[in-house]
Amino acid sequence: MLWMLMGAAVAGEIEPSAAPSAEDMVEDAAGAAPAEPSLLDQARLNRLWLTSNDDGAAEDAALLQETIAQYNEAATQVFIGEVVGMYHPGGHAVQGTRVNMVVSEVIRGDVPSVLEVHVPPAGSYIPNDPLSAPTTIINGYKMLVFTDTRGNAVASSALFLIDGGFIWRNKSPDVFLNPRTNRDWDLIDPSQDYLIANLSAIKDQIGRR
To answer: What is the DSSP letter of 17?
Structure first.
């Protein structure tokens, strides 16, 4: 069930917050990393997801939980870090992407404070297969990352944006990974565009390996 991943909030007890201000939208449009949400912002997101009756969202949640388990099994390091730079070896994306990160939290494994993660080139996007959508990586993003013994991102896709106490993955290539400003979440369930899970719940799942 979706509510098991989204965290404990009681539907109907939280008043929705106002839409983002023009100043916030300008800041995000300029390429800045999303700011940490207020408690009210996070509560609004909890309310929306907990009151969703979309069976597809529940299926996505189960898929993501299973995928995290697979990533965790294949990974030797799991950590949270900020993207501070990236480049394509040889200048060609066909060789993948090298992502420079500053680590803020080690969840599992021996992880240095600064490291380079190799994201191998992914396969083609398959419609209706959200895990085949390429992960968007932007300087300043705070991400949950699973890497193997060679420093490769597991399955070329085991990177998730962290925002508002949740992890996010775009479900299709045409959805930019910036959920804070992509939609009016007072009207639309974000699970239509993203795979989403509560970060604390995912960290607990990783710890049970």
So the answer is: P
